[in-house]
Design brief:
Oligomer: single chain
Strand content: 5-15%
Distance between the termini: 88 Å
Number of strands: 5
């Protein structure tokens, strides 16, 4: 069994830093220290932390898993972008979007009406004095 420091700590009057191996005889209650996250208990020859089901990996395995995860994330992002582009094309090209915008404007401003006039038959507002030199 090996004890590996997860964070800077002190046992038996000696200072240990992250990933340092701590001699077993320095730690009185290794399981308690592991529960607090100070150390990891590693069984010799097994490659798994004691009491946990998470295996330890080599640097090469970690790099390979990371590369696979990045490739998958990129593929997913590309697929999402394609779906969005297809949805936009299905919803309509420029002409359809233009027609929808025109319909909205027509609803907001009746045909032939002055945008400064109120719809209820009231007089024009005429309150825009911008550029009037006032």
């Amino acid at each position: 069994m090996r004890l590996i420091a997860n964070k800077p700590c002190s046992f038996g009057g000696r200072q240990f830093y992250i990933d340092d191996e701590i001699p077993e005889e320095f730690v009185v209650d290794a399981r308690a220290q592991e529960k607090m996250g100070v150390i990891t208990i590693v069984k010799d020859g097994v490659g798994e932390p004691d009491g946990q089901s998470v295996p330890l990996y080599t640097q090469e395995q970690v790099e390979e898993m990371l590369a696979e995860a990045i490739a998958e994330a990129v593929d997913n992002a590309v697929q999402d972008m394609r779906k969005e582009q297809e949805a936009f094309q299905v919803a309509g090209g420029r002409g359809t979007a233009k027609n929808a915008a025109k319909k909205r404007v027509d609803k907001s401003f009746p045909a032939g009406g002055n945008p400064n006039e109120s719809i209820g038959g009231n007089a024009t507002t005429g309150t825009n004095t911008e550029g009037a030199g006032t």
